[in-house]
Amino acid sequence: MSLGYPVMLHLEGRRCLVVGGGKVAERKTAGLLDAGADVTVVSPRLSGRLSEWSAAGRIRAELRGAEPGDLDGAALVFAATDRPELNRQLAAEARSRGIPVNVADDGEAGDFSVPAVVRRGGLVLAVGTSGAGPAMAAKLAGELERRYGEEYAELVETLGKLRGEIKRAVADPAERRSWLQAAVSDEALALWRTVGRQEEGSGLFVRLRNLKG
Ligand SMILES: C[C@@]1(CC(=O)O)c2cc3[nH]c(cc4nc(cc5[nH]c(cc(n2)[C@H]1CCC(=O)O)[C@@](C)(CC(=O)O)[C@@H]5CCC(=O)O)C(CC(=O)O)=C4CCC(=O)O)c(CCC(=O)O)c3CC(=O)O
Ligand SMILES: NC(=O)C1=CN([C@@H]2O[C@H](COP(=O)(O)OP(=O)(O)OC[C@H]3O[C@@H](n4cnc5c(N)ncnc54)[C@H](O)[C@@H]3O)[C@@H](O)[C@H]2O)C=CC1
């Protein structure tokens, strides 16, 4: 088992290729759309949701079998068909072009696997088991989903505004770090929950100063 190294890829507007149109392809596509990727799905058949996304113009769909040229310009490739030998072939093709590839039926054969994810605006909670148990990853993500509610989207947005202000206002690195740590104390988080939405970064910084005393 290869132990995963987590990263947050910036896929906004990047072309991603999903080969296959079943429930696995659909789940991978949903995650890519959440990240703002430009998704092309190639498959002779599409699931209901993939068809809807295609009709709505949210993805490009090619209703045919995969061809080598499909990989042109792709930043990531997902081999998600029910044909293991085709998935393997796609993986080899992607590798030879230096494009990271995910292989649905054999995690170890790919360059990366996809964790179970909970999104709360900019907050992204991801759980991976390095292939040992995807169902376990989904279960733990379900627990996180219940623990960290929708309110965290706003909380993280507020922290982003405040961090921007602290970076502008405080030049000294050690002092800056101390403010940024104070900004996520339990006391401060409770304050942001009540005043976050209406305040600008500067107003939030004043409140943090008052809190710190
Ligand atoms: C290696 C990896 C590669 C990758 O796909 O990236 C991979 C591989 C395989 N999955 C298989 C089976 C299942 N996968 C799921 C579900 C998910 N699988 C996901 C990720 C990953 N799956 C990567 C590892 C991530 C990690 O280890 O943490 C999740 C987390 C994310 C996502 O897919 O978006 C998503 C849950 C999302 C959510 O619900 O939140 C379920 C449960 C279900 O369907 O309800 C089952 C049935 C139960 C079971 O088998 O455990 C099989 C056997 C196929 C067969 O039997 O033919 C393989 C092939 C192999 O074993 O290598
Ligand atoms: N990684 C994961 O999370 C999981 C992986 N799997 C594995 O992934 C595979 C796919 O699972 P599902 O989506 O449930 O299967 P599915 O049977 O719903 O979908 C397979 C898709 O592949 C397409 N396909 C077949 N030949 C093709 C070709 N030549 N070119 C392009 N597309 C082609 C089909 O049209 C279909 O849309 C399974 O065989 C299984 O081994 C299964 C469950 C979870």
UniProtKB/TrEMBL annotation:
Residues 29-43 form the Peptidase A2 domain. Keywords: NAD, Oxidoreductase, Porphyrin biosynthesis. Pathway: Porphyrin-containing compound metabolism; siroheme biosynthesis; sirohydrochlorin from precorrin-2: step 1/1. It catalyses: precorrin-2 + NAD(+) = sirohydrochlorin + NADH + 2 H(+). Coiled coil: none annotated. Pfam families: NAD_binding_7. GO terms for biological process: proteolysis; siroheme biosynthetic process. It comes from the Bacteria. InterPro entries: Met8-like, NAD(P)-bd_dom_sf, Peptidase_A2_cat, SirC_C, Sirohaem_synthase_N. PROSITE patterns: ASP_PROT_RETROV. Its EC number is 1.3.1.76. One of its GO terms (molecular function) is precorrin-2 dehydrogenase activity. This is precorrin-2 dehydrogenase.
